[in-house]
């Protein structure tokens, strides 16, 4: 079995994206040589320059980053107050479960969601 370790967001302009995610996630665990990383559970979100990336993501729904929080609505308000672009207000995808989602877009056009912890089965 492989161990999932990192999601890498390549950017033409990684510094503004880094600043954005500092507001979302707090100070990074790693910041060196133009690459910045935040530890998220057992995995890491990494941002850095990539020569093949130009402009905004034209298909942002292809990959969506999920960040778990017990307070989706409160975190959504916080991010909205910071100026983050909200794509979808907090909603419950299934009325039978107490689960919430909210979708945002970062400066490069990548989607990320706030998600309630998955209920135990």
Helix proportion of residues, in percent? 10-25%
| SS summary, helix count | 2
Shape: globular
* C-alpha-based Rg, rounded: 15 Å
Task: Explain the overall architecture.
The longest helix has 12 residues, at 14-25. The protein has helices spanning 14-25, 72-81, and strands spanning 6-11, 30-32, 35-40, 43-49, 64-68, 85-91, 101-105, 111-115. The chain is α/β, with parallel strands linked by helices and 121 residues long. The chain is globular, with a radius of gyration of 15 Å. The chain starts with 5 loop residues before the first strand and ends in a 6-residue tail after the last strand. Helix content is 18%, strand content 36%. The mean pLDDT is 93.
Give the structure's gist in a few sentences.
The strands form 2 sheets. The protein has a 4-stranded mixed sheet, with helices on one face. A 4-stranded mixed sheet has the order 5-8-7-6, covered by helices on one side. The protein has helices at residues 14-25, 72-81; strands at residues 6-11, 30-32, 35-40, 43-49, 64-68, 85-91, 101-105, 111-115. The protein is α/β, with parallel strands linked by helices and 121 residues long.
Topology:
Blueprint: E1 6-11, H1 14-25, E2 30-32, E3 35-40, E4 43-49, E5 64-68, H2 72-81, E6 85-91, E7 101-105, E8 111-115
Parallel strand pairs: 1-4, 5-8
Antiparallel strand pairs: 2-3, 3-4, 6-7, 7-8
């Amino acid at each position: 079995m492989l161990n999932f370790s990192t999601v890498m967001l390549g950017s033409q302009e990684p510094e503004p994206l880094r600043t954005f995610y500092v507001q979302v996630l707090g100070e990074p665990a790693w910041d060196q040589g133009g690459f910045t990383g935040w530890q998220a559970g057992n995995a890491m979100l990494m941002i850095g320059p990539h020569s093949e990336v130009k402009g905004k993501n034209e298909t942002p729904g292809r990959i969506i980053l999920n960040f778990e929080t017990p307070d989706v609505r409160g975190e959504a308000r916080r991010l909205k107050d910071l100026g983050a672009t909200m794509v979808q207000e907090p909603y419950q995808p299934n009325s039978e479960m107490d689960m919430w989602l909210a979708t945002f877009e970062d400066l490069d056009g990548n989607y990320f969601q706030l998600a309630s912890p998955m209920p135990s089965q």
